[in-house]
Amino acid sequence: MKQHIKIKKPAFNLLITGLIIIWVPLTLKAQLFETNELYSNTKVIKGKYYNGTGGGGYWSLDYVDSIGRIISSESYHKKQLMSRQKFVYDENDNKIFNIQTFDFNDPERADTFRFEYKYADKRIIYQFHKLSENDSTVTELIENQGDTLLKYQEQAFYYRPKTDKTDVFKTVYTLRYRNGLLISKEKYDQQNNSTEFLKYEYFGNGRLKRRLLERIPEPKIQDVYLGGPGSEDESYKYNLDSEGRIKVFYRIINGKKYKIAAYSYE
After folding, report:
1. Which residue in 65, 177, 230, 243 has the fewest CB atoms around it within 10 Å?
2. Which is nearest to 49 in space by CA: 250, 237, 257, 245?
3. Residue 156 belongs to domain spanning
4. Number of compact structural domains in the chain
5. How many CA atoms lie within 13 Å of 44's alpha carbon, on the beta-carbon side?
C-alpha cells in the first residue's frame, strides 16, 4: 500500500515515483505492527488521491479475497501502471509475503519481503522481517504490564558490503493502551539517543481522530512531507458508507481541511 512519506531534505532526490503517490487512509491506524482491515462484501476497492489539492491523476485498485483481505494492489498515474504488489497471509490475517511484481522505475525487478511471527493469544510477540538477502529486522515483546503497557525491542540488521560487516540498530517501543486502543507510542532510538512521542485520540467508532508528534531532542533538519499536507499535530475526518467503509478522507492541519482521498467499492 502507498504511504504518507516524511523525509529529511537531503534525501529528497532519492524518492522513487511509486512511493510519493499518497498516504492511504485505509491503513490509518495507531499501531506498531501493520494490521489488515477486512472488507466484507467487497471484491475491488478503487482509490483516487487528491494530495490535499486538486489531485495529480493518481489512483489505485485493490483486489479483495473472499475473507475480505487485500491480496493484490495496483498503483497508477493516469493510465500508466506504476507498481503492482501481491500479498499472502497467515491464519491470523497477518502478511507473510509482500511480493512486488512490477515497479515502473525498474520493470525487470521483482522483490519479495517475508514476515514470520510468534503469537501469544493472537498477540504478536515476535516478528522477523526479511528486507533483502542480507538485511532484516527482528521485533520482540520484552515487557507486558497487564496488556495496558507493552514494550517491544526492534533490532535492524544491515549488511555493509564495503566492510563485510553487519550493522545492528536497536529501537525500543513503549505502547500504552486504554479500552483496547493505543493512546501513546514512545519510540527510543538507542544509537542516536533520541525519542519520538506519539499520542492518539479516537472517534466513538474507533477510527483515529488526531495524532500528535513530539521529538526529544528536536531534529536539526526540517522534515518534508510528501503525498499530501502533513504536520506534527494533525486531525482526521471521514465520510463513511452504510457498511462503515471510508468513502472520503480528509486531513485537518491548523484548522484547514484537506481532501486526501476518495474510495469506491465493488
Report:
1. 243
2. 250
3. 5-265
4. 1
5. 5
Q: Environment class of residue 246 by beta-carbon count within 10 Å: exposed (0-12), middle (13-18) or buried (19+)?
A: buried
Residue 100 CB-half CA count within 13 A: 22
Phi, psi values for residue 115, rounded to 5°: -125, 145
Distance CA 236, CA 182 (A): 16
**Which of 76, 68, 101 is closest to 86 using CA atoms?**
101
Cell numbers standing for residue 171: 529501537
DSSP-derived 3-state class of residue 9? helix
Taking residues 93-97, report their average pLDDT.
96
> Residue 25 carries which side chain, given as an amino acid letter?
P
Q: What is the pLDDT of residues 119-171, one digit of tens each?
A: 998 899 999 999 999 999 999 999 999 989 999 999 999 999 999 999 999 99
DSSP state of 16: -
DSSP letter, residue 218: P
On the 0-12 / 13-18 / 19+ scale of CB atoms within 10 A, 227 is buried
CATH number, domain of 226, equals: 2.40.160
User: What is the rounded CA–CA span in Å between residue 154 and residue 191?
Assistant: 12
